[in-house]
Amino acid sequence: MAEQTAPRSSAVSTGRRQFLRAATATGLASVAGVGAAQDGPTEITDWHDLDAVRDAPDREYVLGADLGPETAGYDEHVRNRSGGWNPIGEEGEEFAGTLDGTGYEIRGLTVDRPDTEYVGLFGGLSGTLRNVTLVDVAVTGGDHVGGLVGDNDGQVRAPTVDGEVTGAEMVGGVAGENPGLVTEATSTAAVTGEKYVGGVVGYVGGDVRQSTASGAVTGGEDVGGLVGYNSISGLADRGGDIVGSTASNDVSGNRHVGGLVGRNSGLGVVRGSTATGTVSGDRGLGGLVGVNDGEIQNSFYDIETVQINGESALTVGGLFPDQYEQWQATDGELSPEEYDSLTVDGNVIELADAQGVRDALAFVHDSAFGWRLTADIDLTGEDAGLYFPFVAGLFDGNGHTITLDVDLPAVSRVGAIGASLDEIVDLSVEGSVTGADRVGGLVGLNQSREVADVTTDVDVTGVAAVGGLAGENADREDFTRDEDERGRILDSTASGTVEGDEQVGGLVGENSGSVVTSTAEVAVTGGQSVGGLAGTNSGGIEGSTATGSVTGDGGIAGLVGGSPGDISNSHYNIEELSLNGETALTAGGLFAEQYEDWEANDRELDLEAYDSLTVSDDRVEIADERGVRDALGFIDDRQFDWRLTDDIDLTGEAAGLYLPYLVGEFDGDGHTIRLDVDLPAASQVGAIGYAEETVEGLTVEGSVTGANEVGGLVGYMPEGSILDSTVDCDVTGEELVGGVVGRIGSSHVERSTASGDVTGETYVGGVVGRNGSGKIRALTVDGAVTASEEVGGIVGLNGGRILRSTLSGRVSGERTVGGVAGIHYRGAIENSRVLGSVSGGTRVGGLAGTFGTGRIVTSLVSGPIDGEEAVGALVGYNDRGFNHFSGTVTDSYWDAETTGQQSALGDGVEITGTVRGLSTDQMQGEDAAEHMSALDFEGIWATTTDPAGYPTPNQRESRDQSDPADSTDESGPGFGLTGVVGGLGGVVYLLSRRGNDTGSNGGRPGQ
Predict the structure, then answer these.
(1) Do 344 and 311 belong to one domain?
(2) What residues have CB less than 8 Å from 964, skipping those under 6 apart?
(3) To 5 degrees, how large is the angle CA 494–CA 398–CA 386?
(4) How many domains does the chain have?
(5) Are 533 and 506 in contact (CB under 8 A)?
(6) Is 817 a domain residue?
(7) With contact defined as beta carbons under 8 Å apart, do 810 and 837 qualify?
(8) pLDDT tens profile 489-528
(9) Are 962 and 830 in contact (CB under 8 A)?
(10) Residues 368 and 415 in one domain
């Protein structure tokens, strides 16, 4: 091409640039006149001109010549500039004008800014680019990286990009992220990234139309030949729209890798598009789309042309060659009436054999069609690998059986039906199914309104979310455009074997929908979250059961493995179903006699039939071991509250007994339960495994061992209260382990004591392993708390409030160890004290090992503090990664003699306020009120005399500072100690600015 298309007038020198002013006859403005009113588009003829666009980003521009390495300004703006070309525009300051390439090329664009976001010829765009051609680009950036534009909020029309584009997340040959429009794009660029990587666009929330990609695409997760991730747009009722586009490239990644799109989200649409390249990766692979949660309309690939990990494989959108060629030849117009194997009866299509399944593949995405079997169908032997990857309409088995042999270990959403949207009824499935994630004997991902009267006898193998009937049973809004209830399984049965790594269940791997009156008779084997009926449940399970066996490493249970969710009137026989080869009680378990009564009476039990259970004052009373056994049939019923009328010994022959799932209130009435529970592979273990109402007046003794969410009193309590209770129980687990409760959500734990030893690996506390947003008030811990990391004398990981609580035992760990909280990432620690010892390796603090946001106020530390790195008398380490700002420490004290610490705060912490290190004499007896005047000795604190001791917070109902707003006070202006920092000898350090005037180790006691 010629270097210019218009006659030029005199050159205009500006010192840094020289601009060529266009002749008046051309109607083109001069780039040099960026500050003047524009008369027609501005012509760009060299790199100086192009760079000047950033000075007037809302004007109209046209290329008037090819730009390449030989063009004026290339050395200054590209070759010799650090990082190469400086992208025009960025987030919030986008290029808002227009640029038309007018048939010219930009060659040799080089950007090398791996730590910079919004990278490309343009960093950010809200205007329009037309006919821009980039040849031999080499663009490298961080996130939001495209050959042409990093983030397109405008319009990109008919661009062409050739070369190489490299980034981290949101990386595309043309655009890294596209909430706007990209149309008629052509990319031959080789694109490499980590996540959201596509040949044309990495991350789409807008439209991509009539575009093609042919350059190799390589990434980690969400990698597609055309688009990496087709997501939800800024509009509430729509997602990204990919129309009339083609990818012919080789695509490789780890997870969610597709020939056209890596992942298509719940509101995303792909229509009239195809892929013809190859796909390789580990999990979630597809010839057209790696993982599909949205709509696919009239979009396909040729199963035998597109190789997936070197082989032909049927996934969503796959057609066999004859049908694919017909689709291409008819411009995407196919009709089921054209196929002898399909019989159309109104809006229902009938099929009877394997050929019918093959031919149905072109129509199963259309919700206008329902499906009905008219015979059993054998999909083994020569037809092995056949199934329905996606069915949008009703599927009626009509009493018939499908026999399967599907082996797709790298493909997600696999079953007789990979994913479904409408009803599946009256069908039997036999054979074997292997997939990656969301793998089921009937359906990989069930989004149906209802699955009813279905039986499966299938050997199912997968990685995550693996079930005998459904891999995932989902009632999730992001999958559909209507508000109907979805993910309902009714009157169905699964048998066979199920094997996976996590979220593995006899009926369902992962359930967020509802399971009603269904049965699993399955041998289930997995790693984490393994259950006889469901691997995990965040939905509802009612009137259902499991038999068979469960084998796993952690989070195993007879009914639901990980989180039990809402379980109602659903049970298994403790004496028949084996857990890791043994009989064991978990949520839903009944002993044989009661289980048989339940089955014999249409899965109903009558409480009045049990002499061990007495109803008095609207509470069910329990007095002995037999009462605990019989209560198992009713503790999941919200109409019942409970009360002890005597101490109960659950050791010896009664060892292993506890209340695994309790939804009513529980009043210990001053009585004691003695426990011996040893379930090292089970989650939610304690005297009560799961509770959501008030538990009060109970003493627990003995020992409890579990895997995750393990507590002496309660394993997991999302809401409710624990009041006036005592736990003298040794508690052992792995993660989320507490002396009283393993994990709480918004619950309250008040006026209680814990005196046993607590041992775990991470998120371990003397009272609670993890406090989400609850309140812990007036707790005393007198035991040893030991873990590897994230361990606290009161709470391991705290996001709520800890008030008036005391550690008098000892806490130790390797990393992130605190006398009150291992990690205090939100909320408040108030009026609390640490009298016991705190020891660890790194991030060790008397009150908190690591501090994120929130407050620490009016608290004291006197026990020895010992660590190797980032050690402080009050806080070990301030992690500014929490919301990019930190909280405050105010009006708190430590004993500089007994703690062995001369610094309030550990390494890497700024100070802006007050803490004080005192002598032992100053902190004990009557002198404490004088030297710790910030403490409220009139309403909350009391001095300790005869003998002299450290002040004690009382348990009266006077308010703490955070009580009036009843909030966790997540904010903070930055980690600070507001006021005065002082120390021994009366020396006071006044801080007049943000920062640490005494060095990086925090406020120091006087020397």
Answers:
(1) no
(2) none
(3) 65
(4) 2
(5) yes
(6) no
(7) yes
(8) 999 999 999 999 999 999 999 999 999 999 999 999 999 9
(9) yes
(10) yes
In a domain, 354, yes or no: yes
Q: Both tokens of residue 17?
A: 């640039």
Distance between CA atoms of residues 899 and 312, nearest Å:
68
Look up residue 324 and give its amino acid.
Y
Euclidean distance between CA atoms 521 and 519, whole angstroms: 7
Which domain, by its residues, includes 253?
A: 249-257+277-334
Judgement on whether residues 496 and 518 belong to the same structural domain of the protein: yes
Strand pairing report for 311-312 and 307-308? antiparallel
pLDDT band of residue 867 (cuts 50, 70, 90) is very high
Q: Are residues 522 and 376 in the same domain?
A: yes
Measure the CA angle with vertex 822, ends 817 and 824; round to 5°: 140
Q: How many helices (H) and strands (E) does the chain have?
A: 8, 111
Place of tokens 């001369």: 902
| 531-567 tens-digit pLDDT | 999 999 999 999 999 999 999 999 999 999 987 889 9
Q: 59: which residues sit within 8 A by CB, 6+ positions away? A: 29, 34, 38, 41, 42, 53, 97
931 vs 1003, higher pLDDT: 931
- Residue length of the chain: 1007
Domain end point (choices 290, 305, 334): 334
Contact of 792 with 819, CB cutoff 8 Å = yes
3-state SS class at 62: strand
Cis status, amide bond into 114, omega within 30 of 0: no
d(CA 459, CA 495): 8
- For residues 357 and 406, state if they share a domain: yes
At residue 921, what are phi and psi to the nearest 5 degrees? -60, -35
Nearest by Cα to 223 from 246, 195, 204: 195
Do the domain assignments include residue 318? yes
CA-based angle 851:853:858, to the nearest 5? 75
- Phi/psi at 558 (5° precision): -65, -35
Is residue 131 a contact partner of residue 157, using CB atoms and an 8 Å limit? Answer: yes
Q: 298: how many CB neighbours lie within 10 A of its CB?
A: 18
What SS3 state is found at 341?
coil
Q: Give 730's contacts (C-beta < 8 A, 6+ positions apart).
A: 702, 703, 704, 756, 757, 758, 759
Q: Is residue 392 part of a domain?
A: yes
- Exposure pattern of 473-500 as b/e (b: 16+ CB <10 Å)? bbbbeebbeeeeebbbbbbbbbbbbbbb
Task: Say if CB 500 and CB 526 are below 8 A apart.
Answer: yes
Domain final residue, candidates 492, 526, 555: 555
Q: How confident is the model at residue 972 (pLDDT cuts 50, 70, 90)?
A: very low
DSSP string, 70-106: TSTTHIIIIITSTTBS--B-BTTB-B-SEEE-TT-EE
Q: What is the CATH number of the domain that holds 407?
A: 2.160.20
Return the structure tokens found at 798.
């705290």
**CA 989 → CA 195, 870, 878, 977, distances in Å?**
49, 22, 21, 12
* Residues 548, 408 share a domain: yes
C-alpha–C-alpha distance, residues 110 and 133, integer Å:
14
For residue 942, pLDDT over 80 is answered with: yes
Same domain, 461 and 516: yes
Whether 875 contacts 843, CB under 8 Å: no
Tokens 């005065």 belong to 980
- In 3D space, the residue among 254, 324, 322, 335 whose CA is nearest the CA of residue 288 turns out to be 324
Let me know whether 292 and 346 are in one domain: no
